[in-house]
Write a structure and sequence with these properties.
The protein is mainly β and 161 residues long. It contains 2 helices and 9 strands; from the N terminus they run ββαββββαβββ.
Amino acid sequence: MKPRIEIIAEKKIIGKRIRTSLSNNKTFELWHSFMPRRMEIKNRVTTDLLSISVYDKFMDFENFNPHAEFEKWAAAEVTDFDTVPDGMESFTLESGLYAVFIHKGAASDGPKTFQYIFGTWLPNSEYIIDTRPHFEILGSKYKNNDPDSEEEIWVPVKIKE
């Protein structure tokens, strides 16, 4: 699984967020509250949805802590922040360099893909993790826990010094 490397422009995001951890994962709760209201976001750029993880500090994968909390977003990219639905918030995803991986398969198989990215690809690449948010794009091929599902995993990187 070889990623493509992309530089993205700043993205404006509207959605809902929650504090969570891998050991006390509230992702289902977040998406359960967001999905019925997603169409209230009127100025969307595409129909794609974004799952964004904003870590409080640099993720130390060698001393990984499944109890460490982070901010998780269920969101959509928008053209502007002129209209933010009640109960939702705006967020700016800053520009930068990303390694983009395609995860094919059920969401429950995602940990295998992430293990490959951080345990195999990253240590053998010319990159290190950057401190910007990580995100997944859930586009037209995304089918949640279907084995034919497909999503993009965007990992913020910078070149090793």
